[in-house]
Amino acid sequence: MKKIKTYIKIILGIMALALLIYSFMPSPVLVDISTVQRGDVLVTMEGEGKTKIHDIYVVYSPIEGRVNRIESEPGDNVVAGDTVIANMSPADPRFVDSRTEIQAQADIQGAEAAMGFETAKLERAEAELEFAKAEYSRTELLYNNGNVSIARLERYELLVRLRETELNTAKSGMIVAQSVLDAAKARLAQPARAEEGGNNLFVHAPVSGKVLRILHKSEGVIPAGTPLVEVGNPEDLEIVIEMLSRDAVKVQAGDMALIKRWGGEEDIQAQVRVVSPSGFTKISALGVEEQRVNIYLDFIDPIEKWQGLGDAFRVEAGIIVDRSDDVPFVPLSALFRYQGNWTVFAVDDGTTVRTQVEVGKMNDRIAEVVSGLGEGAEVIIHPGSDVFDDVRVVQR
Length: 396
Description:
Blueprint: H1 2-24, E1 29-35, E2 37-53, E3 56-60, E4 65-67, E5 77-78, E6 84-89, H2 98-144, H3 150-186, E7 201-204, E8 209-214, E9 220-222, E10 227-232, E11 237-244, H4 245-248, E12 256-260, E13 268-283, E14 289-299, H5 303-306, E15 314-331, E16 336-338, E17 341-348, E18 351-356, E19 358-362, E20 366-371, E21 378-381, E22 393-395
Parallel strand pairs: 1-22
Antiparallel strand pairs: 1-21, 2-11, 2-15, 3-10, 4-6, 4-9, 5-8, 6-7, 8-10, 11-14, 12-13, 12-15, 13-14, 15-20, 16-17, 17-18, 17-21, 19-20
Helix pairs in contact: 2-3
């Protein structure tokens, strides 16, 4: 019995000692752990921009006149040379005020008087020509009988020609006087008395596609050259990315790109068509002047993947300027500098091991591991100040 009590005391002592030792042991540090994976490491230049229909056609008013209300709506399909964009007609004349009306009435009276004068001249010219022709006939008869000379006959022949010329002049004067009278009367025309006849002018779509924007919707009188509608083909879409000039110099025509955060579930593949040779100055949100360059990209993926995009939609692009395929990589947040070298905290059997690694290509998310870690190795991402070498850790 005494031995049993002794054993119990020893066991209780050992348990108390174990509890005491365990209470003074440091607790494992909670950390985020990732593994070295294998895949493609893409080095990209990031930029923001927007989509753009390659060829946008602005339909202008070809004449000055009245345009009917445009019934087309953005998104409507149009066919080149067939779909009517706008229906135009001649504009009504302006209203005539009292003073202008008095002046126009005076011009009409003057034109009517000139018309009467030209009528009298015409009647006189006709009478003189008739008399000249009669004199010529009598002189010709006398000449045939040998009673007058050839010179006298020729003189009357010349007189007939002169009278014919005067008659033609009088007729031209009548035409001029009539036109002046008509013009004077036209200046009195009021909108309510304007003739409604005449042919309407139909403005057709220049290309097949869709109506993009209505620039002039309501009916009204417009001058020639007024923009009415923008028309384009949404399938003829390109991407224009703005990039800092120091980054744009690393991009070349033919580089592949990924269109991100455009609204779809998957990135869209595109290709650089041209890097603009001319830059421009833009003020950033912080008020800093930046030199930027436009980079134009074409879609590679089929239209079914990006058909939800339209003209002037915002997109972000990552242009691939370098890459390593099928290589081990770690999250960039696992790397830190230690004694001038890239280092990670590897996890071996729940304990941290400070490990120096050699990295290759990297982007804003991952870095290629050239040496120092194998595929499947565990590393700590975002190591804090409480993480150092040979520390017990556990997954958060």
